[in-house]
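Lecture 7 notes: from sequence to structure.
We start with the chain below.
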Amino acid sequence: MNRLWLMLAALGGFSGVALGAFAAHGLRAQLSPAYLATFQTGVHYQLIHSLALLALAGFGAQLGRLGLWAARAFVLGTVLFSGSLYLLTLTATPQLGMITPLGGLAFLFGWACLFLAGWRQAKTP
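Predicted structure tokens for the same chain:
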């Protein structure tokens, strides 16, 4: 389990930095300020959840199934939330914004799984 999440965290971090640089240098003249901010929001959430995935790669085995579900939710959330924001801004298709909240729900589900895993850890002697 750890190897997969470590690789996905690294991929998310790498592509998040690359996309952030692409937005700052390559898209600044192409996108409106609002769309550029939307793109950067996608980058921001991708990087945050890549770090969370990295933590799960290190501690996920101790968290059991809840850690596994959190990792899955963070990957799904990144694809749906950040991915929809990237596509929305690059294609100027506002309808893609309907997908974004599903990614947000996946992120929330992942954090809830981590909370429950922590609660269970505290109860275990």
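Points to note: The chain has one domain: 2-123. The two ends are 25 Å apart (CA to CA).
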